[in-house]
Amino acid sequence: MTKIYGFEGEIKHKFDNTVLTLFHECFCALPLAACLESKIFIVHGGLSSDDDVRLDDVRKINRAMEPPDSGLMCDLLWSDPQAMPGRSPSKRGVGLSFGPDVTQRFLQLNDLSLVVRSHEVRDNGYEIEHDGNLITVFSAPNYCDAMGNKGAFITFGPDLKPKFTTYDAAPHPPIRPMAYASPTFAL
Fold first, then answer.
1. How far is Cα 174 from Cα 151, in angstroms, rounded to an integer?
2. Residue 187: is its pLDDT beyond 80?
3. Are 57 and 72 in contact (CB under 8 A)?
4. Which of 10, 46, 91, 147 is deepest in the core (most CB within 10 A)?
């Protein structure tokens, strides 16, 4: 992933392989998910292909490895919500798409109230989905210098109600968009 979207190329251009290796080590140490006040599940991608996943299953994942092409780690990183109930294959070819019923079951099973995830561009920087049980928040404005979307972040107060802050992209530096991406994806 770091190669496809230009992160690796930009780091090598500005720094060296040592810095890139340090980033990779940091990425492998990041948690797959977090739970805020035992009520809000925060994850990069989405939910699992298995209805019986509990928070303890997430805690037991061996994080010190590259993400596999399938399984719980893969689902947490790459799955996306869909409007229709149930599950379906992902349009991305990895992870899956999951419906509002899957979100509701996960929340009930784990005594949670909300799923917050990222991983997908949203025009306004965020979107409340699945009957208010799931929020997608996307922090990169004008993604890949081409999407024209806002970026957003969420803050939660003591009442755990989300407050959204949105913003536009800063002017792009004088370099073509995606200049550091792998040649297949460069614009």
1. 21
2. no
3. yes
4. 46
